[in-house]
Amino acid sequence: MSHLDGNVLAGAAADLFAFDVTGAIGQCAVCDDVATLAQTMVYGTKMGFVVRCRNCDAILLVIVEKSTGKYLDMRGLRWMQVAEANQLTQEGAADG
């Protein structure tokens, strides 16, 4: 099965988070790789998405879509960091 990159999560996670989840940084609980969620490998199904580590293929998070709502399992992430919107803009300007 081919995968998509983590940018596909922007729409699927919009009602779960008050920020663009693709820019969040997380650490894999298995191999300790640190990356943005946009860099992950995402597999879509009828019921939702399985998000895997780009380094070791471990499951980082799962989003399940049911008629009763969306469910989120993040047990594969050791932590997730979300930058303030203005902080991302400032860092992007400093890098460019």
Uncertain segments are: none
The secondary structure category is alpha+beta
Please tally the helical runs, counting DSSP H or I stretches of 4 or more residues.
Answer: 2
Global mean pLDDT:
83
* Rg result: 14 Å
Strand content range:
35-45%
Q: What is the number of domains?
A: 1
The major sheet is characterized as: 5 strands, antiparallel
What is the element string, with H for helices and E for strands? EHEEEEEEEH
Strand order of the largest sheet: 1-4-5-6-7
Helix content: 10-25%
First CA to last CA: what distance?
36 Å
**Would you report the number of β strands?**
8
What's the topology here?
Blueprint: E1 4-5, H1 9-12, E2 25-28, E3 34-36, E4 41-45, E5 48-52, E6 59-66, E7 69-73, E8 77-81, H2 85-95
Antiparallel strand pairs: 1-4, 2-3, 2-8, 4-5, 5-6, 6-7
Question: How would you summarize this macromolecular structure in one to three sentences?
Answer:
The protein is α+β, with helices and mostly antiparallel strands and 96 residues long. 16% of the residues lie in helices and 39% in strands. It has a five-stranded antiparallel beta sheet with strand order 1-4-5-6-7, with no helix packed on it.
